[in-house]
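Slide 14.
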Amino acid sequence: MTEEIQKLVKLQVESPKNDLTKGINSKLELRQKLIEQLPKEFNKNEKTLGRKIIAANNEIHSLMQAARQNLIGEMQQFKHQKESLKTYRGYKNPLMNQSSAYFDRHE
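Slide 15: predicted structure.
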C-alpha cells in the first residue's frame, strides 16, 4: 500500500495538473486501517520491512510537502495576477469608472 501511495505522490509531483488527491487520500485511509490491524510484536523480517516502509513514508512526506509548496506558489501567483489585472483595468480607481464604460487607458 505504501508503494502505491509513493507512486501516486510521485505522479502528482511530476505532473501537478493531474489531480490525484482523492486517490492518495483513499489509499492513506486504507493504509491507516491496515496499520491498526498490525500485531503488537514483530519478528526480524517484519522489523526490516517496517524500516523500509518508514523510509518510504519519509519520502512520501517530503514529496507531499513539495507538492504543497508548489500549490501555495501557484495560488500566490494567481492572486498576484488577479490584483495586477484589477490595477491595470482601473477597478481600484473609482474616478476611472464613473461612466460605467470600459476604458483601457494603456492602449
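Speaker note: The longest helix spans residues 44-89.
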